[in-house]
Amino acid sequence: MTVFGPYAARIQQVLDRFDAAVLTEAADHVDGQDEELPLQPEEMTA
Question: H helices within 1-46, ranges in order?
């Protein structure tokens, strides 16, 4: 939490600005693929 806590709080502030229906619809299009992101191994979802 020390490192990522502020980021988690900020993303929640951003997401709170969207309608819940919009977020639900957008979540249907997320498939958990990380290939397009420049992530470190510890940041990957699978």
Answer: 5-15, 20-27
Give the mean model confidence (pLDDT) for residues 24-28: 92
45 vs 39: CA distance, rounded Å? 10
Query: 44 φ, ψ to 5°?
Result: -75, 155
Q: Are residues 32 and 46 in contact, defined by beta-carbon separation less than 8 angstroms?
A: yes
How far apart (Å, rounded) are the C-alpha atoms in residues 13 and 11?
A: 5
CA distances from 9 to 2, 6, 44 (A): 12, 5, 21
Yes or no: say if 45 and 30 are a contact pair by the CB < 8 Å rule: no
Place of tokens 């470190």: 40
pTM to 2 decimals?
Answer: 0.53
